[in-house]
N(4)-(Beta-N-acetylglucosaminyl)-L-asparaginase
Amino acid sequence: MANRRSFIKKSLLGTAILAPTISQLSCDAKQSSNVKEGFKPLVLSTWAHGMPANDKAWEVLESTGNVLDAVEQGVKVTELDLSNLSVGLQGLPDREGIATLDASIMLGDGSCGSVGFVRQVKHPISLARKVMENTPHVMLAGEGARQFAISEGFELEDEVLSPRADELFQEWKKTSMYKPIINIENHDTIGMIALGADGKMAGSCTTSGLAYKMHGRIGDSPIIGAGLFVDDEVGAATATGLGESIIRICGSFLIVELMRQGRSPQEACQEAVRRLISKNKNIDDIQAGFIAFNKEGEFGAYAVRAGFNYARHHKGSQELIDATYKL
Ligand code: SD4
């Protein structure tokens, strides 16, 4: 593998154009076993907690056929999962010890809504949906998002950390060193994308963001086009990992646009990772991963480095797949 990679690097250096060659893409694509499969309906979610979330989404999809309800109900399972330290109010807090949440939801017809830096709301994904359905806006943040939650009848939760998050925060305060640990502290956001039997698509993404982030920081997850993008004409993509690196390349939108130009989901995810690596100087500290499908139900995933996996649900079969990776 190292030899193959150094060969690719050398041959790229020998060309005037630094964009990946077709042979590089097809070479990388061979690392994945799912390139040519086509399945519809389909639900994909990031990480292992995507398995129970997909089960819920599938149940909704089967009983109602409604992809929007499916992606909302699916990730709500994760928002309530006390063992998850990167999603929901039980997630690790910011540097001030406060849990602040980001979420977005999108339909393949371009409807979308999101919330960023919101406090005390148990289900930010449902609040994002309310932004989409009940306001003329796409994104509400901070105090405005909290006020909107109250006006929509959401009950605000007490602002106390979960016992585990508090324990880890107290430990972190001893050094207050801000350096996310790859695949640990910047890990576990759920991004879900679903393709209905009728060809309608939707996606959702929800997170407590990076552990020990600066107060007020908003990541990629509520930014339409960065953490999530869905277009019925083409396909859908969602992201996980260091949000700043994903925002810099508008990752999910990029993947959908590459698929529009003819790349497979796998090739598009690989090109997004290549671009992310080239645009982020501190790449040694970064993990990021993408999942995507196209309207035929072909799917793919790719990450900067090892450790990223994703859950797929199709008909009766549910599996957890290790994503291939670049570094
Ligand atoms: C963020 N992308 O706020 C999120 C973190 C994440 O898995 O994905 N964790 O930057």
